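Q: What would this chain look like folded?
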Amino acid sequence: MVILAVESTAHTLSIALLDETGRVLVEERDQLTTSEGGLIPIKIQEHHLSVLPHLLKRVREKAGRAWHDISRIALSTAPGIGHALRVGLITTVHLANRLHIPLIPVHHGLAHLTSGLLLTESRNAVLVYTSGANTQLYTYYDDWLSLVGETLDMSLGNMLDSIARLLGLGFPGGPQLERLAREGKTLLELPYTVKGMDIAYGGFYTAVKRLIEAGRPAADIALSVQEYAFAMLLEAAERAMALYDADTLILIGGVALNERFARMAGMLTASRNARLLIPPRHVLGDNAIMIGLEALRRETCEGFTPLPPARIPAEVQPYARIPTRMHYARCLTLNREHLTPGKV
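A: My prediction, written as C-alpha coordinates:
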Protein backbone atom coordinates (compact mmCIF):
# COMPACT_ATOMS: atom_id res chain seq x y z
CA MET A 1 0.00 0.00 0.00
CA VAL A 2 1.21 3.49 -0.87
CA ILE A 3 -0.47 6.67 0.43
CA LEU A 4 -0.41 9.91 -1.54
CA ALA A 5 -0.71 12.77 0.96
CA VAL A 6 -1.42 16.45 0.26
CA GLU A 7 -1.07 19.36 2.71
CA SER A 8 -2.42 22.79 1.74
CA THR A 9 -3.84 24.42 4.87
CA ALA A 10 -1.79 27.64 4.76
CA HIS A 11 1.37 28.99 3.10
CA THR A 12 2.90 25.60 2.27
CA LEU A 13 1.85 23.17 -0.44
CA SER A 14 3.37 19.76 0.16
CA ILE A 15 2.92 16.37 -1.50
CA ALA A 16 4.32 13.08 -0.18
CA LEU A 17 4.21 9.33 -0.72
CA LEU A 18 4.39 6.93 2.24
CA ASP A 19 4.22 3.14 2.40
CA GLU A 20 2.16 1.04 4.82
CA THR A 21 4.92 1.10 7.48
CA GLY A 22 5.05 4.91 7.56
CA ARG A 23 8.28 5.10 5.59
CA VAL A 24 8.47 8.27 3.52
CA LEU A 25 9.23 7.49 -0.11
CA VAL A 26 9.06 10.99 -1.59
CA GLU A 27 8.18 14.48 -0.36
CA GLU A 28 8.16 17.78 -2.22
CA ARG A 29 6.98 21.18 -0.98
CA ASP A 30 6.88 24.84 -1.86
CA GLN A 31 6.26 27.68 0.59
CA LEU A 32 4.91 31.14 -0.09
CA THR A 33 7.17 33.83 1.39
CA THR A 34 7.06 37.62 1.27
CA SER A 35 9.65 40.35 1.74
CA GLU A 36 7.13 42.41 3.72
CA GLY A 37 3.59 42.08 5.06
CA GLY A 38 1.72 38.89 5.86
CA LEU A 39 -0.46 36.31 4.15
CA ILE A 40 -3.25 37.26 1.74
CA PRO A 41 -5.61 34.30 1.15
CA ILE A 42 -6.05 34.81 -2.60
CA LYS A 43 -2.27 35.12 -3.02
CA ILE A 44 -1.79 31.83 -1.20
CA GLN A 45 -4.30 30.16 -3.50
CA GLU A 46 -2.57 31.59 -6.58
CA HIS A 47 0.77 30.34 -5.27
CA HIS A 48 -0.53 26.82 -4.66
CA LEU A 49 -2.19 26.60 -8.07
CA SER A 50 0.95 27.83 -9.81
CA VAL A 51 3.35 25.33 -8.15
CA LEU A 52 0.96 22.35 -7.99
CA PRO A 53 1.74 20.91 -11.47
CA HIS A 54 5.49 21.12 -10.86
CA LEU A 55 5.27 19.46 -7.44
CA LEU A 56 3.12 16.63 -8.78
CA LYS A 57 5.53 16.11 -11.65
CA ARG A 58 8.57 15.96 -9.34
CA VAL A 59 6.82 13.53 -6.96
CA ARG A 60 5.79 11.27 -9.82
CA GLU A 61 9.30 11.29 -11.33
CA LYS A 62 10.96 10.49 -7.99
CA ALA A 63 8.36 7.87 -7.06
CA GLY A 64 9.03 5.64 -10.04
CA ARG A 65 7.03 2.42 -9.80
CA ALA A 66 5.62 3.44 -6.40
CA TRP A 67 3.31 5.91 -8.16
CA HIS A 68 1.40 2.97 -9.65
CA ASP A 69 1.02 1.38 -6.20
CA ILE A 70 -0.94 4.30 -4.73
CA SER A 71 -4.06 2.90 -3.09
CA ARG A 72 -5.04 5.75 -0.74
CA ILE A 73 -5.06 9.55 -0.90
CA ALA A 74 -4.81 11.56 2.32
CA LEU A 75 -5.83 15.21 2.44
CA SER A 76 -5.90 17.91 5.09
CA THR A 77 -9.50 19.12 5.26
CA ALA A 78 -9.36 21.29 8.40
CA PRO A 79 -8.53 23.72 9.86
CA GLY A 80 -6.78 26.35 7.78
CA ILE A 81 -7.20 29.15 5.27
CA GLY A 82 -10.22 28.42 3.08
CA HIS A 83 -8.58 29.49 -0.19
CA ALA A 84 -5.62 27.19 0.49
CA LEU A 85 -7.65 24.25 1.74
CA ARG A 86 -9.78 24.24 -1.41
CA VAL A 87 -6.70 23.71 -3.61
CA GLY A 88 -5.92 20.48 -1.74
CA LEU A 89 -9.55 19.37 -1.73
CA ILE A 90 -10.08 19.87 -5.45
CA THR A 91 -6.72 18.31 -6.31
CA THR A 92 -7.16 15.16 -4.23
CA VAL A 93 -10.77 14.52 -5.24
CA HIS A 94 -9.76 14.89 -8.90
CA LEU A 95 -6.84 12.46 -8.47
CA ALA A 96 -9.03 9.99 -6.57
CA ASN A 97 -11.59 9.99 -9.37
CA ARG A 98 -8.89 9.66 -12.02
CA LEU A 99 -6.99 6.87 -10.24
CA HIS A 100 -10.15 5.16 -8.86
CA ILE A 101 -8.90 5.09 -5.26
CA PRO A 102 -10.47 6.23 -1.95
CA LEU A 103 -9.55 9.14 0.29
CA ILE A 104 -8.80 9.63 3.99
CA PRO A 105 -9.61 13.13 5.32
CA VAL A 106 -7.22 14.33 8.03
CA HIS A 107 -7.37 17.06 10.67
CA HIS A 108 -4.25 19.18 10.25
CA GLY A 109 -3.74 19.76 13.97
CA LEU A 110 -4.14 16.10 14.84
CA ALA A 111 -1.57 15.28 12.16
CA HIS A 112 0.92 17.55 13.95
CA LEU A 113 0.31 15.65 17.19
CA THR A 114 0.73 12.33 15.39
CA SER A 115 4.09 13.41 13.97
CA GLY A 116 5.38 13.48 17.55
CA LEU A 117 3.42 10.66 19.19
CA LEU A 118 4.46 8.03 16.64
CA LEU A 119 8.12 8.72 17.47
CA THR A 120 7.86 7.75 21.14
CA GLU A 121 6.69 4.77 23.13
CA SER A 122 5.83 7.00 26.11
CA ARG A 123 2.30 6.55 27.38
CA ASN A 124 2.40 9.66 29.56
CA ALA A 125 3.52 12.71 27.62
CA VAL A 126 2.80 16.43 27.40
CA LEU A 127 2.69 17.89 23.90
CA VAL A 128 3.36 21.57 23.19
CA TYR A 129 1.68 22.31 19.88
CA THR A 130 2.57 25.76 18.65
CA SER A 131 2.39 26.94 15.07
CA GLY A 132 1.10 29.92 13.11
CA ALA A 133 -2.49 29.68 14.29
CA ASN A 134 -2.26 27.29 17.26
CA THR A 135 -0.81 27.32 20.77
CA GLN A 136 -2.10 24.40 22.82
CA LEU A 137 -0.98 21.93 25.48
CA TYR A 138 -2.13 18.32 25.28
CA THR A 139 -1.56 15.32 27.49
CA TYR A 140 -1.34 11.81 26.10
CA TYR A 141 -2.08 9.25 28.77
CA ASP A 142 -3.03 5.62 28.28
CA ASP A 143 -4.45 6.12 24.76
CA TRP A 144 -6.33 9.32 25.64
CA LEU A 145 -5.48 12.72 24.24
CA SER A 146 -6.68 15.72 26.28
CA LEU A 147 -6.44 19.47 25.82
CA VAL A 148 -5.21 20.91 29.14
CA GLY A 149 -4.10 24.44 28.23
CA GLU A 150 -3.99 26.94 25.38
CA THR A 151 -3.60 30.59 24.49
CA LEU A 152 -6.53 32.73 25.55
CA ASP A 153 -6.10 35.12 22.63
CA MET A 154 -3.25 35.21 20.07
CA SER A 155 -1.30 32.13 19.09
CA LEU A 156 2.46 32.28 19.64
CA GLY A 157 3.26 31.83 15.95
CA ASN A 158 0.88 34.53 14.78
CA MET A 159 2.19 36.89 17.43
CA LEU A 160 5.80 36.35 16.36
CA ASP A 161 4.84 36.93 12.72
CA SER A 162 2.87 40.07 13.66
CA ILE A 163 5.79 41.51 15.64
CA ALA A 164 8.11 40.74 12.74
CA ARG A 165 5.81 42.76 10.47
CA LEU A 166 5.93 45.69 12.92
CA LEU A 167 9.72 45.53 12.67
CA GLY A 168 9.58 45.59 8.88
CA LEU A 169 10.48 41.95 8.38
CA GLY A 170 8.80 39.63 5.86
CA PHE A 171 6.88 36.37 6.16
CA PRO A 172 7.38 33.96 7.78
CA GLY A 173 8.53 36.33 10.51
CA GLY A 174 9.46 33.86 13.24
CA PRO A 175 12.77 32.74 11.70
CA GLN A 176 13.76 36.35 10.96
CA LEU A 177 12.92 37.37 14.51
CA GLU A 178 15.06 34.49 15.78
CA ARG A 179 18.06 35.68 13.77
CA LEU A 180 17.57 39.25 14.99
CA ALA A 181 17.32 38.10 18.61
CA ARG A 182 20.87 36.71 18.46
CA GLU A 183 22.10 40.30 18.18
CA GLY A 184 20.16 41.48 21.25
CA LYS A 185 22.05 42.69 24.32
CA THR A 186 19.41 43.94 26.75
CA LEU A 187 16.36 42.15 28.14
CA LEU A 188 13.42 44.56 28.13
CA GLU A 189 10.51 44.15 30.53
CA LEU A 190 7.30 42.70 29.04
CA PRO A 191 4.01 41.37 30.48
CA TYR A 192 4.06 37.78 31.70
CA THR A 193 0.62 36.15 31.80
CA VAL A 194 0.21 32.50 32.79
CA LYS A 195 -3.17 31.47 34.18
CA GLY A 196 -3.09 27.88 35.35
CA MET A 197 -2.05 26.07 32.16
CA ASP A 198 -3.38 28.81 29.87
CA ILE A 199 -1.40 31.77 28.59
CA ALA A 200 -2.27 35.14 27.04
CA TYR A 201 -0.27 37.10 24.48
CA GLY A 202 -2.68 39.96 23.67
CA GLY A 203 -1.33 42.46 26.20
CA PHE A 204 2.17 41.21 25.46
CA TYR A 205 1.78 42.19 21.80
CA THR A 206 0.49 45.65 22.73
CA ALA A 207 3.48 46.19 25.03
CA VAL A 208 5.86 45.22 22.23
CA LYS A 209 4.19 47.75 19.91
CA ARG A 210 4.88 50.45 22.50
CA LEU A 211 8.54 49.46 22.73
CA ILE A 212 8.83 49.72 18.95
CA GLU A 213 7.10 53.10 18.95
CA ALA A 214 9.50 54.25 21.69
CA GLY A 215 12.44 53.46 19.41
CA ARG A 216 14.00 50.67 21.46
CA PRO A 217 16.60 48.61 19.52
CA ALA A 218 14.96 46.00 17.31
CA ALA A 219 17.44 43.30 18.35
CA ASP A 220 16.70 43.87 22.05
CA ILE A 221 12.98 43.70 21.32
CA ALA A 222 13.40 40.41 19.43
CA LEU A 223 15.51 38.97 22.25
CA SER A 224 12.96 40.00 24.88
CA VAL A 225 10.00 38.71 22.89
CA GLN A 226 11.52 35.25 22.64
CA GLU A 227 12.63 35.02 26.25
CA TYR A 228 9.31 36.09 27.73
CA ALA A 229 7.00 34.36 25.23
CA PHE A 230 8.81 31.02 25.37
CA ALA A 231 9.14 31.13 29.17
CA MET A 232 5.39 31.66 29.55
CA LEU A 233 4.52 28.69 27.36
CA LEU A 234 7.09 26.41 28.96
CA GLU A 235 5.95 27.33 32.47
CA ALA A 236 2.46 26.22 31.51
CA ALA A 237 3.94 23.04 30.01
CA GLU A 238 5.89 22.34 33.22
CA ARG A 239 2.70 22.73 35.25
CA ALA A 240 1.07 20.13 33.00
CA MET A 241 4.03 17.79 33.38
CA ALA A 242 3.92 18.14 37.16
CA LEU A 243 0.16 17.63 37.38
CA TYR A 244 0.15 14.51 35.18
CA ASP A 245 3.61 13.24 36.20
CA ALA A 246 4.61 13.10 32.53
CA ASP A 247 7.91 11.50 31.57
CA THR A 248 8.17 13.07 28.09
CA LEU A 249 7.75 16.57 26.64
CA ILE A 250 7.09 16.73 22.90
CA LEU A 251 7.46 19.94 20.88
CA ILE A 252 5.53 20.05 17.61
CA GLY A 253 4.57 22.73 15.10
CA GLY A 254 6.59 25.32 13.24
CA VAL A 255 7.65 27.35 16.30
CA ALA A 256 9.54 24.26 17.53
CA LEU A 257 12.05 25.03 14.77
CA ASN A 258 13.31 27.89 16.95
CA GLU A 259 16.63 26.83 18.51
CA ARG A 260 16.24 29.01 21.60
CA PHE A 261 12.80 27.53 22.28
CA ALA A 262 14.25 24.02 21.97
CA ARG A 263 17.13 24.85 24.34
CA MET A 264 14.77 26.27 26.95
CA ALA A 265 12.60 23.15 26.67
CA GLY A 266 15.73 21.04 27.10
CA MET A 267 16.58 22.84 30.35
CA LEU A 268 13.05 22.22 31.57
CA THR A 269 13.10 18.48 30.89
CA ALA A 270 16.62 18.10 32.30
CA SER A 271 15.48 19.70 35.57
CA ARG A 272 12.62 17.16 35.78
CA ASN A 273 14.67 14.15 34.67
CA ALA A 274 12.26 13.81 31.74
CA ARG A 275 12.79 13.24 28.02
CA LEU A 276 12.50 15.94 25.37
CA LEU A 277 11.35 14.81 21.93
CA ILE A 278 11.35 17.07 18.87
CA PRO A 279 10.54 15.53 15.46
CA PRO A 280 12.97 16.11 12.57
CA ARG A 281 13.00 19.73 11.37
CA HIS A 282 11.36 18.95 8.02
CA VAL A 283 8.35 17.48 9.86
CA LEU A 284 7.80 20.41 12.27
CA GLY A 285 6.32 22.96 9.88
CA ASP A 286 3.35 22.21 7.64
CA ASN A 287 4.07 19.14 5.51
CA ALA A 288 2.33 16.24 3.78
CA ILE A 289 4.37 13.64 5.67
CA MET A 290 2.36 14.18 8.84
CA ILE A 291 -0.88 14.11 6.84
CA GLY A 292 0.08 10.69 5.47
CA LEU A 293 1.06 9.44 8.93
CA GLU A 294 -2.26 10.48 10.47
CA ALA A 295 -4.16 8.86 7.59
CA LEU A 296 -2.17 5.65 8.10
CA ARG A 297 -2.86 5.74 11.86
CA ARG A 298 -6.59 6.32 11.33
CA GLU A 299 -6.92 3.34 9.04
CA THR A 300 -4.45 0.96 10.70
CA CYS A 301 -5.05 1.72 14.37
CA GLU A 302 -8.65 2.94 14.42
CA GLY A 303 -10.13 0.91 11.58
CA PHE A 304 -11.25 3.94 9.57
CA THR A 305 -12.63 2.98 6.17
CA PRO A 306 -11.31 5.19 3.34
CA LEU A 307 -14.06 7.10 1.56
CA PRO A 308 -14.96 7.25 -2.13
CA PRO A 309 -14.63 10.77 -3.62
CA ALA A 310 -18.40 11.28 -3.57
CA ARG A 311 -18.39 10.93 0.24
CA ILE A 312 -15.90 13.76 0.80
CA PRO A 313 -17.69 17.00 1.82
CA ALA A 314 -17.66 19.57 -0.96
CA GLU A 315 -16.65 22.36 1.43
CA VAL A 316 -13.63 22.73 3.70
CA GLN A 317 -13.71 23.43 7.47
CA PRO A 318 -11.41 26.36 8.24
CA TYR A 319 -12.25 26.51 11.96
CA ALA A 320 -12.61 22.86 13.01
CA ARG A 321 -10.93 22.08 16.36
CA ILE A 322 -9.51 18.87 17.76
CA PRO A 323 -11.94 17.46 20.37
CA THR A 324 -11.07 18.54 23.92
CA ARG A 325 -10.71 14.87 24.89
CA MET A 326 -10.53 11.95 22.51
CA HIS A 327 -9.43 8.34 22.38
CA TYR A 328 -6.21 8.12 20.39
CA ALA A 329 -5.24 4.63 19.22
CA ARG A 330 -1.52 4.20 18.59
CA CYS A 331 -0.40 0.88 17.12
CA LEU A 332 2.60 2.21 15.18
CA THR A 333 6.00 3.35 16.43
CA LEU A 334 8.43 4.89 13.95
CA ASN A 335 12.03 5.98 14.13
CA ARG A 336 13.35 9.25 12.75
CA GLU A 337 14.81 7.56 9.67
CA HIS A 338 11.31 6.55 8.57
CA LEU A 339 10.46 10.21 8.08
CA THR A 340 13.34 11.08 5.74
CA PRO A 341 13.02 9.91 2.12
CA GLY A 342 15.68 7.35 1.22
CA LYS A 343 16.84 6.72 4.82
CA VAL A 344 15.14 3.32 5.30
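The longest helix spans residues 218-244.
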